[in-house]
Design goal:
mainly beta, Immunoglobulin-like, 4 domains, five-stranded mixed beta sheet, 36 strands
Length: 419
């Protein structure tokens, strides 16, 4: 019985040319080659002579048969004829690949500011103000050749939908990436000009000028943006204060406070500002301080307690109402010594693996005497990578801190000293 001829096929990208090599079992035979790929089938060529090479252009509609894969496998059948008589069939597989450049998703991204307050100060929704702008990122992604968009990332974080909102942005640029069902990706980075805004902060202290007086003063300081916005509008700082007797409901407006500015900081002029001599020393008061600029408003609350003398005395008693300082030691009103405690954190880079490396640490405030010092490394590998920490040469002003680890990785070490 006659044998059917055989074929083999090279791998090729869809849309490009595969080579089919036919080896005939008899020179007089003719051949027809058919394919099946997914739901598609058809004839590649017919009436083919023996020992032929056929250039087969892989149809582009093959893409739609593999929407979730970068490769696909089909079958080829070579039918061998002797004249008009079919004498046999030979079936083999073929493999096609997708072309990344053709299949990569199409990506377009638009970003704008949508915060009306920052837009008014910058003069455009195409400019940002750090920490205050709210951006809208519109992702327009088109999958190709039957695939679908399965994932969207913004700065390596997966997001849902095509419109993304990011509030109080800290950065001026975002990287958007889309991934299709075949695993092909496309990415782009969008950015807008950003004004570096300084967030408004305040630290304030309100107290009586003397323990039993009715006069109260305030000291304050903080940060704020001391400059102009993109539109030319100058930022301004306003500070106002309110008070009420503790236990009452209604706030009374006390006035506004002036501030001295330097770079992006501010503070009260002079040593302090008097809020008046109207606060009965036998009553407690609550104070509300409001600081605001063009984009921020912060409020702090403070309590000034009833005035109390530092000490009371009589013919047969002497009572201390506050902490008593004797030299460098501090005693509470019950006569108990208050411990001196200081703490901090330093970084040490070992000079070599398995070699103790030391650093001198100076106390922010001198102790009354030599304190006890404990140290602890910040590490997730105690005993395995960090093999030891220790202290030596402790004095009232400083000590030596040592660390040993198996490598030279910079390591943070916390310390606490108590006397």
């Amino acid at each position: 019985m006659a044998n059917a001829s055989t074929i083999i096929c090279t791998t090729a990208n869809i849309g490009e040319t595969a080579i089919i090599m036919l080896k005939s079992s008899n020179k007089k035979y003719k051949h027809t080659i058919n394919y099946i790929f997914g739901n598609l089938s058809g004839m590649i060529d017919e009436n083919i002579s023996s020992n032929s090479i056929i250039n087969w252009a892989i149809p582009r509609n093959f893409y739609f048969q593999i929407p979730s894969s970068k490769t696909g496998t089909g079958t080829l059948t070579c039918i061998t004829y002797d004249g008009s008589t079919e004498i046999g069939r030979y079936t083999t597989t073929f493999r096609v690949t997708t072309n990344e450049e053709e299949c990569r998703p199409i990506l377009n991204v638009n970003m704008i500011d949508i915060n009306e307050n920052t837009i008014a100060l910058s003069g455009s929704n195409s400019m940002l103000i750090q920490y205050k702008s709210h951006v809208q990122i519109t992702i327009s992604a088109e999958a190709r050749y039957g695939s679908g968009i399965v994932k969207r990332n913004v700065n390596n974080e997966t997001v849902q939908g095509n419109i993304i909102y990011i509030y109080n942005v800290e950065k001026d640029r975002f990287t958007i990436e889309v991934i299709d069902s075949r695993g092909y990706t496309n990415s782009t980075t969008v950015s807008l000009p950003m004004l570096l805004y300084t967030c408004l902060t305040m630290s304030a202290e309100i107290k009586r000028t003397e323990p039993t007086t009715g006069e109260v003063d305030i000291t304050f300081s903080g940060n704020y943006y001391n400059g102009s916005y993109q539109s030319g509008t100058r930022n301004t700082l306003q500070i106002s204060w309110y008070y009420r007797e503790k236990g009452t409901q209604t706030w009374t407006f006390g006035g506004t406070l002036s501030a001295m500015t330097e770079d992006n900081t501010y503070k009260n002029p002079g040593e302090s500002i008097s809020l008046g001599n109207i606060f009965d020393s036998e009553k407690s008061y609550e104070f509300k301080i409001i600081a605001s600029d063009k984009l921020s408003r912060i409020t702090s609350f403070h309590i000034v307690p009833q005035g109390k003398p530092i000490f009371d005395w009589g013919d047969d008693f002497f009572k201390v109402n506050k902490n008593l300082h004797i030299g460098k030691e501090i005693f509470n009103k019950k006569g108990m010594k208050i411990p001196e405690i200081q703490h901090g954190r330093v970084n040490i880079t070992p000079s070599a693996p398995n070699t103790p490396t030391g650093i001198a640490v100076t106390f922010p405030v001198e102790f009354s005497d030599k304190p006890d010092v404990t140290v602890s490394p910040i590490t997730g590998a105690p005993g395995t990578q960090v093999t030891g920490t220790s202290v030596s040469n402790i004095s009232s002003t400083s000590f030596m801190l040592y660390i040993t680890r198996i490598n030279t990785t910079d390591t943070a070490v916390c310390w606490q000293a108590m006397k």
